[in-house]
Every structure is written in C-alpha cells, then in structure tokens.
Amino acid sequence: MNNVRTADAIRPKSFDDIVGQDHLFGEKGVVRRMISAGRLTNMIFYGPPGTGKTTAAEIIAKSADMVFHRINATTASLSDVKDILSTTDSVFCTGGILLYIDEIQYFNRKQQQALLEYIEDGRVTLIASTTENPHFYVYNAIISRSSLFEFKPVRAEDCIRALRRAMSFLEEQTGTKKSVTDEVLLYIAKSTSGDVRHAIGVLENAYFAAENDITVEVVDEFNVKIGNYDTDTHFDLLSCLQKSIRGSDADAAVFYLAKLLAAGELIAVCRRLQVIASEDIGLAYPLAVSVTRAACESAKELGLPEARIPLANAAILLATAPKSNSAEAAIDAAWADVEAGLGRVLPKHLQSPLFKGYKYPHEYPNHYVKQQYLPDDIKNKHYYTPSENKTEAAARDYWEKIKKS
C-alpha cells in the first residue's frame, strides 16, 4: 500500500467532505452556491498543492452529471486534449464533458489557445488548476472566459478531519487498531504546511512503522523538516523578510531570504519580493518593480542554489531603496469608497466621445486643463498624497507649477 492509494481512497465524494476551503465549498461557499443554482462556468483553480483542486473538480463534474476527463499538462500534449474533445459528439450524459487540466502553466501559449474554440462553443467546460499566479502563466483569453478561485493552504485544525478518515481507512484495510492523539495529528498537519495529501502520506508511513501508538517521534522519522519548518514558520519568515526590507535593514533582509530559500521557498519569496516592490518602495523608486520582476524571473529559470544570487540583489536593492506606500494608501482609500457605493454615476463628458464637454488635455498648454474627473458625489476627494521622497516630491512640485500656470 502507498500514500497515493490511501489519499485516493479517502478522497472526498461531496462538498461536505472537502476540508479547508469553506469560502468555496462550505454551506455558503461561492462555488457551491453557483453549482446548486445550476450554473457551471469555466474555472481556474489556483493555490498550493494538496489543497483539493482535483477533488473539487471531480465533485463538480459528478454534481452536474458530466463526463469527467483529467489530464496533466506536465505530460500531456495537445493531441491528448483533442482526443478527449473529439468524443463530445458521442457523449450521452445530460451535462456534457468537463475537462480538468492539472498544472495548466506547463501548456505553452499555442496549446492554451487551441482550447478556446472548444470552450467558446460549449462543447466542453474547462476547469484548469495551477500552483502559480494564473495572471502570469495562463493565457489572457482563457482567463477572460473563466472564473478564478483561490485554494488556500488548509489550516492544521481542519486537516485533522482528513487524517482521521485516513486512520479509519488504514485500520479497516489492515485489520489492525492503532492509536493516535489529536495532538500528534495536529503536529503532522502543521509540519506539512497545509498540504493534505502530504499529511496523509506522513500519517500512513508512521502508521506502518508504529508498533501500537503513533507518536511524534515516529512521525519525525518520515517527516524531514528544516529547522522545525511549518506553516506558521513560513508566514513568520515572509513577514520578517518584508518588515526588514520595509525598515531598510539589508543585513536582516538577506538573512531571512537565506532561511526561506534553505527551506525551498523559491516561489513564495518571488511573490513576496514583488509585493514589497510595489507596497513598500512604490513611487519612491518606480523601477524597483521592473528590476525585482526581472530578478524573480531569472531566479525561477535558474532554480536553487543559483537563484539565491538574483534574489539577493533584489532584496538588498529593495532594502536600500527609498520607501513610499502612497500608492497603496491611495488605492485602499478609493477601494473603501467603491465598497461604500460611492461614485456610481460617472461624469458624462468622460464616458464617450458622444458626450460633449470633454476637454482634450493635449490641446492645452503643458498638456493640462482643469476639468472634473471624479463623480459628483466624490468630486472633491483626494486619494493620493505624495510622500517626501525625491521622485514624488519632484512630481508634486511639477504638477503644482503646471496647475497654477
């Protein structure tokens, strides 16, 4: 018996059995509500491995009475997809075909484009999954025809439910009773960083190795960690990295970068550094976004250990760069007004050339003319306040001069 068979054997058969994704499949989850209402659309599932993406796709197909086909983009070719889609005319179930493509980021642009004709004419419903940011790896035309749903790392407390199911299965299959406490199950769940499939594999190995009781000591023989690295440590280190860069401490930044990379957190580091470039450096040094992006792409192409070099360049650059969060503050303030329902009636002179009254700035001195851009109910709002760094101060002084002229 191996961990894949055990994980497959206890795979959830209904939305109620899915652990850790209540925002999608709980009683009030958005996907569950949509399926219950008879609505099924193309979807992209993104999130870390072992969080239930494949399982959810299978349950959705069953709920909608569809024929389920699954392929993995790491090994499949476009001809494999076409072979599946060629069966659409001979499908007799009421719901049609649901095609699930796992790791769609491994399909190139041409392969992804080839899917469009099938999902546009309704012959197939597509659910694609990826562990990467879909906006970086999935063709825009597919994204525009799909709904995106994020799968989050499963909380350790939620993972225990799946581990209890695995224990029952193992005892039934072996005819042997063994004991394990919730504390040990929680330890397994935390040490596998929200990956339910990995947690089940660790439990299964410990089950067969234990004589009677499954203990932490037995678990540790099969669950190699770096420095007791778990989900909490993952987020704590990322937080330390960002706060060190925000605080302009280059030494601390490279230390936390090293700890994260030693734990294999290449993708998480790239994501966080790109956030930092916009959130903490922002308009004080706008090129930081492009430089950080280039360093992260280089790191992903190189892989570890060489990836540490461009990422160290990025981390030190960000730590020593001037700081500004003015753009984040501006968008957050504007977002709050949108959420509050303000600005619903748009200025007519901005909507279309058919509405007269718009003044074309390029026809005026300094390419500027005063006119109203915000809706009437918020026309005097100010969302953006420049910080006192050199770049924003120069822009502020320039526009103050232009607007007074």
Overview of this protein structure:
The chain has 405 residues and is an alpha/beta fold. Helix content is 52%, strand content 7%. The protein has a five-stranded parallel β-sheet, sandwiched between helices. The longest helix has 19 residues, at 156-174.
Which series of helices and strands comes N to C?
HHHEHEHEHHEHHEHHHHHHHHHHHH
Radius of gyration: 26 Å
Tell me the span between the first and last alpha carbons. Answer: 80 Å
Total strands: the figure is 5
The strand order across the widest sheet is 2-3-4-1-5
β content, as a range?
A: 5-15%
Number of helices: 21
pLDDT under 50 segments (min length 5)? none
**Mean pLDDT over all positions:** 87
Task: State the major sheet.
Answer: 5 strands, parallel
- Class from helix and strand fractions: alpha/beta
Helix content: 40-55%
